[in-house]
Design a protein that fits this description.
tRNA binding, 4 domains, TcmA/NAT10_helicase, alpha/beta, Aminopeptidase, Rossmann fold, 6-stranded parallel β-sheet, 18% strand, 697 residues
């Protein structure tokens, strides 16, 4: 029956795939286009084809779940039998409309003993799924069966078809909240607007409605989003409003990079799912229009909303706008896709700690009797402290732009992960997530060095091997600080540095290096430098989420590690001296100075080719060393041979070599040299560099 409060129907379906599919089809018999998600949908497809013949059903793997952002569905089945994706579960639950069906499939019997095929992506080498007793699955099962869970478990003979849902009205009136937000936008009192709301609150409807009305009013408007799949609802509303006013126009959609390349300037630019776009790109988009609206969720499924809100809104507030306020925040709180106080929404938010942070931070000045303490906790120990898990994960969600529901599984199930907490009473003031890496067998290290193996995890040693050619990097023990977060009200008090001190004390006898890898911005680089970390590698491409280059830093904990760090840092600086002005022109001067500084009083840089350069270039020629990681070494080789008259301008490939060592990597037109594909470029360069290496010098 239809629920008067417009809440979603939630079911646990158990049994064989045949039983689950039969029950789900019975439930959704009168509902349109049922959707099935699973780790592997091949058995569902085979059964449907041979037995059920349901032509309306669509099946997808968990990897495709992000494509559903912005969609609305009547009925969804998520099969967790052979694999669990927390992020997919959260995303899909947010797409089911009121009175629709959200069903989860589990096997009969002991689900915890079923090998999880989605688990390997959370495990570092050499761990395999069958070796791990998943703490996350135990946690999720408890959440599904707790008293407040909205999920009903029904036997097949208790399942009856739910009634058909009314058609979604073609042009519903905007709610009072939407109308107020739209009026504020139309008044143009601010240079930029940020529309923040949870899922299902009508953001897409508001954007589509506003776009159409602005276009009708003669405004020059544009829309961008990470992909067009995310704007289905927005587009539908846009087209409906134009039809209502008898106006014929295409949706003015541009991909973000295409919009930046377009010389036009708009009256208003709409950016949907803004938290999924790198912040530097958002900053550039903000300059393309007189007014901009950035729409995003404040928490939840993208795993980026809070970081977006903190970092990007700080930038917007600092804008210089003589005639307008810098920015205004618009909010929508009442759900539209489903009824208020929806049990499924509450369950998802509580299960994955996605609701706004409820962590209460104590003020030391007011509570001098409560001491600061430190705690280390990992894996199944979290299950005994659900309160601590909630506060810790909420802090990560609020402070780090890439924290997603999948990270909860990673923290609970990865045996290399530990959390270091700074506590005052029960309040989590600061958290650092640490992963233990390294001690790779020599044979595996050689395969990584040569580019023939990429074992899961072990980011620091793998990158030092594969990208820097450091032959013994796999032997050492690393503790990598993967995430570090301080509650916003507690920042700039030294809490994170104090926590790092505690980690260093614990690490002294257990590893050789503390390490970290992060999106390089001046404030973050400054933090790690202040804490004694030394740069050893700058990434060659920008991180998709942050829009920044990644920087890898280490802090040696013993004499051998200190000697190695000095060598690694010297090589890093020698390569950066060549690459920075050529390939990193978009890095600002302040950050460039920080990255280039000599922190160990190393030997002066000479620019001469070294034995290490020859080894790196040989790895490129004979194995799979990436081309972008040997550009500085190739530059030194070419310049050295030119200086010694071992290479001349009459060399058959001098023009190509000169182009490669002088032009930014992304600007080189290899087609001009008859090289049309990346594979062709690499093969040709390997041949040329191989010839240069044969010269004795």
């Amino acid at each position: 029956m239809l629920l008067s409060d417009n809440h979603r129907h939630c079911f646990l379906l158990t049994g064989s795939i045949h039983d689950v599919l039969s029950d789900f089809f019975r439930l959704s018999k009168h509902l349109s286009t049922p959707l099935i998600y699973a780790h592997d949908v091949s058995q569902y497809n085979a059964l449907n084809h041979s037995i059920f013949h349901n032509s309306d059903v669509r099946t997808c793997s968990f990897k495709q779940a992000r494509q559903e952002l912005g969609s609305t569905h009547d009925a969804i089945l998520v099969d967790l039998t052979h694999g669990v994706s927390a992020s997919a579960l959260a995303i899909l639950a947010g797409t089911v409309r009121g009175n629709g069906v959200f069903a989860i499939a589990l096997p009969k019997g002991d689900w915890l003993s079923v090998v999880d095929l989605d688990l390997p992506r959370y495990l570092p080498w050499p761990y395999e799924s069958h070796q791990i007793e998943s703490s996350f699955k135990r946690f999720l099962l408890d959440q599904l069966h707790r008293d407040s869970s909205p999920f009903q478990t029904l036997a097949s003979d208790q399942i009856h078809p739910l009634p058909a849902l009314p058609l979604m009205e073609s042009l519903t009136t905007l709610t009072e909240e939407q109308t107020e937000a739209q009026s504020c936008l139309f008044e143009e009192h601010a240079k930029s607007y940020v529309l923040i709301a949870p899922r299902g609150r009508g953001k897409s409807t508001l954007l589509g409605d506003s776009l159409a009305k602005m276009l009708k009013a003669g405004k020059k408007v544009a829309l961008t989003a990470p992909n067009q799949d995310a704007i289905k609802t927005l587009k539908a509303r846009f087209e409906q409003v134009l039809k209502e006013v008898d106006l014929d126009s295409e949706l003015p959609f541009f991909a973000p990079d295409a919009l930046l390349a377009n010389p036009a300037h708009w009256d208003t630019l709409f950016v949907d799912e803004a938290a999924m776009i790198p912040v530097p790109l958002l900053m550039a988009l903000n300059q393309k229009a007189e007014h901009s609206l950035f729409s995003t969720t404040d928490y939840g499924y993208e795993g980026a909303g809070k970081g977006f809100g903190i970092r990007f809104c700080r930038y917007l507030a600092a804008q210089s706008t003589p005639n307008n306020m810098p920015f205004l925040t618009l909010t929508l709180s009442m759900p539209i896709r489903w009824g208020g106080n929806d049990p499924l929404e509450h369950w998802i938010n509580e299960c994955f700690f996605l609701a706004p942070n409820q962590n209460v931070v104590l003020n030391e000045a007011d509570t001098p009797s409560i001491p600061q303490t430190y705690k280390v906790i990992a894996n199944n120990a979290w299950l005994d402290r659900p309160d601590l898990l909630a506060r810790t994960f909420q802090l990560l969600v609020s402070a780090h732009y890439q924290t997603s529901p999948d990270n909860l599984r990673w923290i609970l199930d990865d045996p290399s992960v530990s959390a270091y907490l700074s506590l005052q009473g029960s309040a989590v003031r600061c958290v650092a997530i640490m992963t233990a890496e390294g001690q790779l067998p020599d044979a595996l290290s050689l395969a990584v060095l040569q580019g023939t193996r990429r074992p899961r995890g072990h980011l620091i040693p793998q990158s030092l091997l594969a990208h820097e050619g450091i032959e013994d990097a796999g032997r050492y023990r690393y503790w990598r600080i993967s995430r570090i977060a301080t509650h916003q009200s507690e920042q700039n008090k030294g809490l994170a540095s104090q926590l790092l001190d505690q980690i260093e004390i614990a690490a002294q006898e257990q590893c050789d290096f503390l390490s970290t890898s992060f999106a390089a911005t001046p404030d973050v680089v400054g933090f790690w430098l202040k804490n004694g970390f030394i740069p050893v590698r700058l990434g060659t491409t920008k991180d998709q989420a942050s829009g920044c280059y990644s920087l890898m830093m280490v802090k040696p904990l013993n004499e051998i590690a200190r000697q190695k760090t000095a060598i690694w840092h010297q090589d890093y600086r020698a390569n950066l001296a060549i690459n920075l002005p050529r390939d990193y022109q978009d890095i600002d001067a302040h950050l460039a100075r920080m990255l280039s500084a000599d922190f160990l009083e190393a030997k002066p840089l000479t620019g001469a080719v070294t034995d290490k350069d020859k080894q790196d270039l040989a790895l490129f020629v004979n194995h799979h060393r990436p081309y972008l990681t040997i550009r500085a070494q190739l530059t030194r080789l070419v310049n050295t041979q030119l200086a010694r008259h071992q290479l001349s301008h009459s060399h058959a490939h001098f023009s190509l070599l000169n182009t490669v060592i002088t032009q930014p990597a992304h600007e080189i037109d290899f087609v001009a040299f008859g090289l049309k594909t990346k594979k062709h470029v690499e093969k040709h360069l390997k041949s040329i560099v191989g010839e240069l290496l044969l010269t004795k010098f």
